[in-house]
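User: If only I could read backbone structure tokens as easily as an amino acid sequence. Underneath my words sits a plain record pairing an amino acid chain with its backbone structure tokens. This is the protein in question:
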Amino acid sequence: MIKQLCPPLDQQLTSLLLDEFISQERRYVLCDWEPATLDGGQYAEIASRLIYHIDSGTLNMRKGVDPCLKYIEDSNNSNSHNFAPRRTALHLCRVLRTIYKFRSQRGAVHIDPDYSANELDAGLVIANVRWVMAELLRVFWTGDQSEVSRVIREIIRYEVPAVLSFDGRHVVLRTDCSAEEEILILLHNSGEAGMSRGELGESVAKAAPTITNTLIKLIGPKCKQVIKDRSNRYFITPLGTKRIHDELAGKLVTGG
């Protein structure tokens, strides 16, 4: 992925940005709200240096968010600009300022007795972080543009803590999951690779007819949380991923 972005983006900064992005996605899905509000500032710092480098031609690993963005915004129209289209650069500046100011003004940086991290705050930050990531991929991806959506889906996928990989199998380490929940968690964990019916049969601790009937339900027109491709592999759909985020985040960790 980095090869498709660097150049024109700086490789070190891009690697740091991706690491920060993936870390925030992981912890957000696990309902760990505080890092999303706090680490959003770190993401904004790295992204600001990236677009400053593109716009100014100067690479500065320590330049702050405000100086980076002020150069691009250029209220006095005194700088030369290489980031095109300029409108996109300005949109990125506005969103990065929102991320950076929100985390400090809500008390996420300094101890504040009136502040506690919550889902709404974390959701606002992560939505803006996702938009910036997608916009940078859209503008600077040098490969096949049709691959960008797939790449975004894959980089936010991660190995679910509740799933154990052992001897070629993937097993959900919880005892409180229904067949539906186990299948969705396993397919979420498998990402773009998906799973075959045989692999699901080896991984889900349920009777074969139960697994088959559950897959039929999940694929069916009233659910559509799973899809099967022409090679008979199963994949989670955006509706399935939404259910993971909305209902099953607590079951992605071990226990239960």
